[in-house]
Each structure stands twice: as structure tokens, then as C-alpha cells.
Amino acid sequence: MSLTPFLDKLPIPRVLAPLRRDKCSTYYEVEMREFFHQFHSELPPTKVWGYEGQVPGPTIEVEEGETTLIQWKNNLPDKHFLPVDHTLHGCHESMPEVRTVVHLHGANVPPDSDGYPEAWYTNGFKKCGPCFTRKVYEYPNHQPATTLWYHDHAIGITRLNVYAGLAGMYIIRDKNEKYLNLPSGIYEVPLVIQDKSFNPDGSLFYPTNVQNPPPEYPEVSITPGFAGDTIIVNGKAWPYLEVEQRKYRFRILNGSNERFYRIKLDSGQSFIQIGSDGGFLRKPVWLDEFVIGPAERMDMIVDFTNQPVGARIKMTNSARTPFDFGAPPDPNTDGLIMEFRVIARTSEDTSVIPERLNCIKDYDVCFAEKVRDITLDVGADQYGRLLFKLNDCEFMDYITEDPIVGDLEMWRIINPGLGVHPLHIHQVQFRVLDRIPFDTAAYAQTGQLRFTGEPEPPNENETGWKDTVQAYPGHVTRLLMRFGPYLGRYVYHCHILEHEDHDMMRPLEVKPPEHCHQTDQPF
Ligand code: C2O
Ligand code: CU
Ligand code: CU
Fold it and tell me: Which of 209, 332, 371, 447 is at a distance of 20 to 30 A from 99, taking alpha carbons?
């Protein structure tokens, strides 16, 4: 099936209105339901699952320090329309097929509002998982202006639920952002980039039996990674956006299961990156192209001022899948993302590209209380299928990452494999210290790290707050982070959703300081 690119206009997800707002909090209800959505005007409507009847879900916009209460209501059917793999952890036939739990990615929230993968619930909260927490989630939003996103996180089916449409953007604003005088209003545009494949009848395609199915389960769906052949932005395949001759701000989110994008404009214009996962960078970074991995967000300014009226500028992708050793994209399909069509300016552009955006204090590596090694492993499961692990452990193995609240930790993400894994840690925004190349053959033989070069500093656009990092193959990626203020159970995982479901996810328990014994004193 070939769809005409740049036929449909880019939709802009609406901003969700709260049900009520008072001095203490803002209350929202968000319903997950099944409906039909047209991804392209040459495609029949497609069955999807989305928040508030939208794919992607509505954008939630909050102010720093405002408390939001959200009831995420599951009104989905009892049967999944994508192939659940009952061989995966938490997906046994005795479990309900359709389970959901919402995670606000990048947010620092108490554990009972973080969307622990086993805190799932079914339609109408009829059944709940072994770690069910609360019906209304509470988000303190005590972090600087940035782009977060919410998405489903139910154990063993996250890849299916997100692919079905359960994802949306969440924006925190603050005073600093207002002073910066960036392009705003209709000139600030979210771009949620995803990829899908469609069956001839327009239904969503997700593969089954990619690897040999075990005899007792004739149909299974786990795969080492799935990338669709159709690129979707804000719910439309290869859309176009009319842009005036002026500056725009694009909040780019890669909401794909597996696919990385190496993004460029065919006009040769630069992207000016102003923010990363957790907030503004110190200063803008000019980029001719950039790589965005699953779950990463990049806040970009593009200046169309000097482009001629009528110009058509394509946003293209050149990243291989799996990244970055697989097949290159086809320049006519997955090598295309969207198109900008330049029109005349309707008013003066008074927005600016500030020289300074944010002050960010570096962590001092000398104060790291703890160094943890996290190895990204590939092995085989009991059926001989590829199994991705962290430190050779599966999700259900006992907890090994138990940082003490308030401690600064260094995590060394050791990637002896071939691909880039986007490693994501809940509760924190971290900093990328560096990446050090090592001898992977020696590591495979001896388990010892033998460095083969000097530490490489992070890319300029990785020098701010991050919650998801591209762990390069043959490199130890070193991160610095401070856990807190909340205690309790979270997770960290690879954000390739097929890896996360099988089984590249681990619990993370933030502990109280050892010397502080719980007493019954009031303070
Ligand atoms: Cu975006 Cu644990 O996830
Ligand atoms: Cu997260
Ligand atoms: Cu991975």
C-alpha cells in the first residue's frame, strides 16, 4: 500500500481542560477508550486505543508547582486487538488481557503515582495488579519547564498499548520560560513522531511469530524490536504544516516503539536546540541534524524567516533500524517525516533565540557516593528467543538497585552489544558525564573493562537534564544522578518497548538513609 506523502495537514493535539481547578490543585479525568482514527486520507479508519478519543492524547499543560490530580480511567474492551504474548512476565492467561497503568515519563513524582508496571488495573478498576496503588494520581510538577509525556506502562504489554495509541504530551511551564520570549501560541508546535504499519483493511499491523513460537503457544508476538513502515506525526502519516516566514518552536518527542530518527531539513537549515528531556539547555545549540531515540524529547527552534514563500521543506530521517546497524530507511517512505510549506508572515516576529536559557550546576563526580555498573545483555529465553536483560537479571529477580535518598550516584551503562539502547531511569533527571570506549571482545572473555580511549564528553545537546540516554555500543556511558525526595519503588529500563517487555526492565528502590530509624516522633 502506498500513501501519498504530505497530503494531510498536521493535526495539533488539543490542550485538555481540567474538570476543576482550585487553590490546591487542578483535577482532570482522562478516559482511555477504543475508537477509529484516520491516519491518512487514503486509509480507511483504523481501530486504536487512545486517551480522550485522540491519538496522540490531548496535551496536558501545567505550571511549575501546580499540583495536578488525574484520574486515568480505563474504559477499554476486555480483549486486546493486538497480539498479547502470554509467554511474557505478567501476561499469563490467568491475567486479564487488557491492563493499563499510566506513567508520566520524566516526572519526579511519588512512587504510588508513577505507574509501576504491576500497578495495572482493568476497565472500571474491576481487577487490579499485585501492586495496585491509587485511583487518582497526584503530580506535584515541582520541576522546571520542560516537555514530558504520558504513556501506558502495563507489564508485558507496554509495546502493544503504546502502539495502539496510548501516549500524549505533558508540558510544564515556568517563569523562566516566559522571560525567554520564545516563539509561542500557534508558533509553538508539538511534534509527536511515531511509526506504524497497516494491514490492507487499514487495521494496525503488529507482527506475530517473528521468532519460533513455543509449541504450547502457537501465536506469540514478542520480537527483538518492531518498526513500522509509515511515519506518523501527531497521528497523521507524513503530514505537512504551513509555516510563516518566521521562527517556530517545535517540541519533538520520539514516541516510537523501536525506531530512532536522524532528522534533517532538506533546505539545509539548522535546528536550534533549546531544551532536552528535563528542561532548557544552558544555551542554544545549532545542529544540522540530530538523532532522537525512543522516548527522548528535544525542544527546537527553526527559523523560516529567509525561506521563500512557496518553499517546500522536507524533514527527513536517515537512521538505520535497528539503530544504527540495521537497514537504512527508504528515502520515499520511512526516510520521510513531514513537510513544511512556507507562507508569508502575518505579523511581526518579536520572539528571540536567547543567548542564555538556563543555569545548570554540574554535579561534582568526586561526591558520588556510589558507583553502579549496569550491563546491557542479550541472551536467550527458555524458548530460544532473544532475551534482553540488565545485569543479567529479569524484571522479577530481586532488587539490586536500591539508592539512598539524597545520594549522588554514578551509573556506568556498559553496552557490549551492537545496537544503541535508550536507557531510561524513573524518578530522576540525570546528567550525562561522558562515554568511554572499551574492548568488547576482551569484555566478553574476561568480564573486565579495558578502556580503549579517552572519555568522550556528551554531545552538546546532551549537556542538560536527561531522563533517557542513548547508550552507545562499545561504550560505557556514565551518568550522574541524585535520587529523591521520594522513597519507594520505581523502575529503570530500555525504552525500546520490545526490550522493556522482554525483559530489559528492573525495579529500583529508593531507600531511607541507613542511620535514620523510623520513630513515632511527629518530625
Ligand atoms: Cu517512558 Cu518507564 O517509561
Ligand atoms: Cu519514565
Ligand atoms: Cu534495548
Answer: 209
